[in-house]
Amino acid sequence: MFFNGKRKIPAILGMFLIVVMLFSCASSGSSGSGASRGGSAVQAPTDKPMFYGYGRADSAMKAMNLGKAEAVRKAANAMLGVAVAMVKQPELDKFFSEINDFNIYVYPETTVKVSSGQDDQGFYSQIGVRVNLAALGNSLKAQMLLGGQVVGQAGETYSLADEPAPPGAKEEAVAEKAPEKGSEAAPEPAPAVEPARDVVADATAEELAFINDYLSDLTYMVYYNEDLPIDPFLMKSAVVSANRYLNQQGLSYVDLEQIESLKKDQAMVYEEETGEAVSIIQWIAHKLNADIYIEINLNVTERTDGGKYYGSANLTLNNYEASTAEGRGAANYQTNPPAFSTVSVDDALNNAVASAVYKAMPNALNSADVETRKALTRGLKYSLTIVNTQDRRLLRDFERKLERRIRGLKQLSYSAEQTVYEVYMLGDIIDLEDIIYDVTDTIPELSGMTLVMQQRSSMTFDSGI
Questions:
Q1: Which residue in 66, 175, 264, 462 is deepest, having the highest Cβ count within 10 Å?
Q2: For residue 259, which phi and psi values (nearest 5 degrees)?
Q3: Spatial distance between the Cα atoms of 134 and 131, rounded to a whole number of angstroms
Q4: SS (H, E, C) the chain
Q5: Residue 404 CB partners (closer than 8 Å, separation 6+)
Q6: How confident is the model at residue 453 (pLDDT cuts 50, 70, 90)?
Q7: pLDDT of residue 362
Q8: What are phi and psi of 354, to 5 degrees?
Q9: How many C-alpha atoms does 342 have within 13 Å on its Cβ side?
Q10: Which among 16, 28, 81 has a CA at the least distance from the CA of 54?
Q11: Tell me, what's the pLDDT at 43?
Q12: Between β-strands 458-462 and 219-224, what pairing exists: parallel, antiparallel or unpaired?
């Protein structure tokens, strides 16, 4: 855009500088060298700087999470630089609106309470947290939100100075104090789990390759037991922690938002399709093409001692095959010693649950792997329907030849109109289709058999008779 007249340019530049100054104030601590309001010494930049945030919500835990969100947003603005953050404000708004749990970007044990409580408008919380700049920077890069210290290169590092502390904030972070023996120490690592061994002893090299490919490509869906009398926000936080672990392992998973959306929008469809014969969560797992469904069962306890808050979590993760609800093992973990917070009981419980999930997930996944390998001893189960099966003699010839190519065949029903089977084999559904064509090519009367429908693990053929 071009401007006529020399006086407009300095005016516009001045307005821009004023906006930048205001934005800098709103994102205090972004310069990497600010002193505290009490006039203390300038803080050196660090990869885990302290930032402060305020939140208000209908529960203390939600208010605290919103406080963390504001603190992380300030750190993101500082990393990108004021000008870039202003230009990319819509993209940043979208990025932060899609984050359910901000613990991935903070060190929860470093939480500092400034103020909290409840009034006629709900709960409020002003807290400080040390931000994990490495995790935040990686997420910004993944969304192509680049600028300032985030330039999009591999191995880049980030550092910022602490934000000046607001009145009432403690000067030091809890995590930087030496823990009291038996109370604040970090939980012991979960015991190592023996790697899963191949249990399909008679599998061919081709079948073993299929098993390994199949297990490496599983999609997981994590949700919580809705019958438990636990704060849903805390349970959803556990789901988010489990999904975060799956993401860090490079595994596929169903996002919590997808589950919640389907539960809300498809309840009537679920009732019509199932008659409530299966749980809605199992139905959703099937709909969203999950292979393993992990159900979170949780029990929490809390205590307060001398202004310090402690929370314990007893967590069980139950694995199920998503389509059949067959068990696929389980894992349990109990936080010992309890998680600790100086902020609130809710914060201590949130820390305990996140810790328990991270300790239990490796065992849960290993258990799912072992049990799935055992289930594969017979092979994957497929449903095969053949319509127009009035010639039973011809069909028996087909069954005998098909059985030689697969691991198992079970007839579920027969009529002249259609015959239904369960087929067990180590291969995907396309492999089964090819085998059926190979078999029918050896039976002239069935050489015209064609596929008329395929959905997930079910196939329907017309015999062509």
A1: 66
A2: -65, -50
A3: 9
A4: CCCCCCCHHHHHHHHHHHHHHHHHHHCCCCCCCCCCCCCCCCCCCECCCEEEEEEEECCHHHHHHHHHHHHHHHHHHHHHCHHHHHHCHHHHHHHHHCCCCHHHHEEEEEEEEEEEEEECCEEEEEEEEEECHHHHHHHHHHCCCCECCECCCCCCCCCECCCCCCCCCCCCCHHHCCCCCCCCCCCCCCCCCCCCCCCCCCCCHHHHHHHHHHHHCCEEEEEECCCCCCCHHHHHHHHHHHHHHHHHCCCEECCHHHHHHHHHHCHHHHHHHHCCCCCHHHHHHHHCCCCEEEEEEEEEEEEEECCEEEEEEEEEEEEEECCCCCEEEEEEEECCCCEEECCCHHHHHHHHHHHHHHHHHHHHHHHHHHHHHHHCCCCEEEEEEEECCCCHHHHHHHHHHHHCCCCEEEEEEECCCEEEEEEEECCCHHHHHHHHHHHHHCCHHHCCCEEEEEECCEEEEECCC
A5: none
A6: very high
A7: 92
A8: -60, -40
A9: 19
A10: 28
A11: 67
A12: unpaired
Number of alpha carbons in the 13 Å side-chain half-sphere of residue 379: 25
* pLDDT band at residue 443 using 50, 70 and 90 as cut-offs: very high
Gap between the Cα atoms of 351 and 312, Å rounded: 9
Please, which residues have CB within 8 angstroms of residue 179's CB and are 6 or more apart in sequence? 185, 186, 340
Taking 50 as the threshold, does the pLDDT of residue 203 lie above it?
yes
Side-chain-facing half-sphere of 194: CA atoms under 13 Å = 3
CA-to-CA distance for 99 and 256, rounded, in angstroms? 11
* Bridge partners for 423 per DSSP: 382, 409
Residue 386, CA distances (Å) to 42, 103, 405, 410, 413 in order: 78, 53, 18, 13, 11
CA–CA separation, 14 vs 276, rounded Å? 65
Q: Give the sign of the dihedral formed by CA 174, CA 178, CA 184, CA 185.
A: positive
If one compares 101 and 52, the residue with the highest pLDDT of the two is: 52
* Token representation of residue 199: 């249990």
Q: Please say whether the beta carbons of 165 and 52 come within 8 A.
A: yes
> Which residues fall within 8 angstroms of residue 427, CB to CB, at 6 or more apart?
207, 210, 380, 435
Pairing of strands 122-131, 106-119: antiparallel
Distance in angstroms (rounded) separating the CA atoms of residues 312 and 408: 48
- Share above pLDDT 90 across residues of the chain, in percent, rounded to a whole number: 31
Query: What is the torsional sign of CA 351, 365, 249, 263?
Result: negative
Structure tokens at 396: 């028996």
Both tokens of 121, joined, read 């408008």
